[in-house]
Write a structure and sequence with these properties.
Elements: H1 4-15, E1 22-27, H2 41-61, E2 65-67, H3 91-108, E3 112-117, H4 125-134, E4 139-144, H5 164-173, H6 194-197, H7 207-210, H8 224-247
Parallel strand pairs: 1-2, 1-3, 3-4
Helix pairs in contact: 2-5, 2-8, 5-8
Protein name: Creatininase family protein
Cofactor: Zn(2+)
Keywords: Hydrolase, Metal-binding, Zinc
Amino acid sequence: MNSLFDIQASIYNDIKGQVYDFAVLPWGATEPHNYHLPYLTDCYLAHGISVDAVIKAYNAQKIKGMVLPPVPLGAQNPGQRELPFCLHARYETQKAILTDIVASLDYQGIYTLVIVNGHGGNSFKNMVRDLAVDYPHFLIVVSDWFAVLSQTEYFEEKDDHAGEMETSVMMHYYPELVSLSVAGNGAYTPFKPETLRDGTGWTPRNWAQVSQDTGIGNPKKSTAEKGKVYAEAVTKKLSELFIDLVKGEIY
């Protein structure tokens, strides 16, 4: 059996001298996902989706992308960040991480980065605008993979957090990490004012007031087959984005 050092050397030799068209950065969080999913669910899903999409783009148009290690530091809501081992990353922290990654890629001659975001609490728009000032030749595109396609055609119940969609896709990619038998029902309490429910105004939800099991959406009808069908559709769409960025003119 090859040692870890042999494997690392082999990987390095494979990468060395190759020309890569773009990089993909999965970005998640470290937080509870009901009782049946791991804390790193957002990272696992963003990474699995990214890898499949990069493979599809290469198979379709021979463009080469590299999937970077997922970032596990996400922004958390009140009521969630108080829970044991839930990690809250400030805007300034996330921006510093992204800035260093962009600086590294820029120095290496890779000028296109797609952030595949797996955590609803993350928001990168202002960071990307700032970096566009500092690196005007560098293209950063953000995609919330869970919002690429509507859940309606694929799942029976809407998933906002650790529900049917996330659980199904986890069952597709990482079935050994899912313990559906211990899942809570994902019942939640919405805001009372209609103006906050309909989007007239926004404020972070207090997770302790919203959910008993940290889930928002019932995972009980989740299946690996549903997850596979949805993941295939999402990664096909993402692969088309990658191809557009590398092959086409965006203006």
